[in-house]
Design goal:
With 193 residues, the chain is mostly beta strands. 11% of the residues lie in helices and 68% in strands. The chain contains 1 helix and 9 strands.
């Protein structure tokens, strides 16, 4: 029994340096495009849409882990409108605008080509408000936007496709000021340099 245990430990020790070398696809500068499902929640009212944008990051190997920093710019098609708010024929629309994110991630290679990671950071989202009074005699129409600060956490899997390309899938949750939060499930495709 001891012979099998020692053999298994020796095999694990020999395989560890090879595994560390194979994690190299997950290091360096990376640039990617992302697209996915976006749902926002403001005090119990939900709206769905599509999130799309770009991300840039840098990852480096730290022993058996991958550490990284990243920044992202996205926009969203989320737009919710209600009619007859103040008078018959008026319309009030609230839309999720651009979103800026900067944060870090920690990952662990689960195989030679798959990285599992968690992320956290700061996010700032623009919320747009548009009101049209629905009449031609008085002009009460207005457009307004507000930036909301928040935090984002998430987790995902990154798949090395080739020496410089990768794909990923990721879930993330963002919580902003004034009772606004969002859930997103996105896919990405990128290149490392």
């Amino acid at each position: 029994m001891r012979k099998y245990l020692l053999s298994a430990l020796l095999a694990g020790t020999v395989a560890s340096p090879a595994f560390a070398q194979d994690s190299a696809p997950f290091s360096g500068l990376r640039v990617e495009g992302i697209v996915g499902y976006d749902t926002t929640d403001v005090e119990g009212e939900n709206s769905d849409g599509v999130a799309y944008g770009a991300q840039v990051g840098y990852d480096f190997n730290a022993g058996g882990a991958v550490l990284g920093v990243e920044g992202e710019v996205t926009d969203s098609t989320v737009d919710e409108c209600v009619s007859d708010v103040d008078r018959t024929g008026d319309e009030l629309c609230v839309g999720a605008g651009r979103d800026l994110y900067v944060g870090g991630r920690v990952g662990v290679p689960v195989s030679r080509r798959v990285l599992a990671y968690g992320k956290a950071g700061y996010t700032n989202s623009r919320v747009n408000l548009d009101y049209e009074d629905g009449t031609t005699g008085t002009d009460l129409d207005f457009e307004e936007g507000e930036n909301l600060d928040g935090v984002r956490v998430g987790a995902g899997l990154e798949f090395a496709l080739g020496p410089n390309s990768y794909a990923k899938t990721e879930y993330r949750y963002s919580n902003y000021e004034q009772g606004f939060d969002r859930h997103q499930v996105v896919a990405g495709f990128g290149f490392r340099f």
